[in-house]
Amino acid sequence: MTLDVAWAVDWTRRTAEQVAARRVELTELDRQIGDGDHGENLARGFSAVIARLDALEDAPAEVGDVLKLVATTLMSTVGGAAGPLYGTAYLRSAKVTGVDALDSRAVVAMLEAGLEGVVARGKASPGEKTMVDAWTPAVEAAVAAADSGADPAAVLAAAADAAEAGAVATIPLVATKGRASYLGERSAGHADPGATSTALVLRAAADAAGAERAGPEGAGRNRAPSDNARHDGA
């Protein structure tokens, strides 16, 4: 199997839904060790992303077109660190997904590019209690899955599992990067909000891939924006 533009659109919509559903949780996590605006900012950003998707007259031609739209929208609408970090991750990923469908190796390349973008923008390393602590194990798991011959859906499922474990593993860490680092030892005992939202984003990608693998019954959400507009207006 491969993952096409419809998958990328579905991933984006699922991410927006999950960010909105967990907005309060993400905001509370950030309130404990940061500015307290992570959930609100991401929810606002992905709401704007969906508005832009719905306003498109023509469906995106390539996976990278969808990711670039997400990147530019988040950069222009999300404040704090989240906008630049996620925006750069999506933009780097868009540059390596200028195709109409992704195989397992292309999924790995997409995730690797996203991690490179986060590291380049945030200057963080694993163990510093940041979103890198979710991204890094996700990429490592994706590489291992692809090397074992897994299809793209399984690669993303492995990445999502590892990201979730990585987010949980930030709880005992003492932050040494970002605003949370100001708290010193008091930052321990709380999950990093960026790592938590990273796990959410990658789980949405895996869920969308699972739906695509399931075929028409499981992928009924995978509508191009123009189809969605026609359906809503019917």
From TrEMBL:
A GO biological process of this protein is: glycerol catabolic process
List, for all copies, the residue spans of the domain called DhaL: 6-207
Alphabetically sorted, this entry's keywords are: Kinase, Transferase
Q: Note whether Membrane occurs among the keywords.
A: no
Q: Which Gene Ontology molecular-function terms are recorded?
A: glycerone kinase activity
Where does the UniProt annotation place the signal sequence? none
> Where is the stretch described as Disordered?
207-234
Q: Which SUPFAM superfamilies match?
A: DhaL-like
Which SMART domains does this one have?
A: Dak2
Q: Which Pfam families match?
A: Dak2 (PF02734)
Which cellular component appears as one GO term in the record?
cytosol
- NCBIfam families in the record, alphabetically? dha_L_ycgS (TIGR02365)
Name this protein carries in UniProt: Dihydroxyacetone kinase subunit L
Q: What organism, scientifically named, is this protein from?
A: Cellulomonas fimi
Q: Which gene encodes it?
A: dhaL
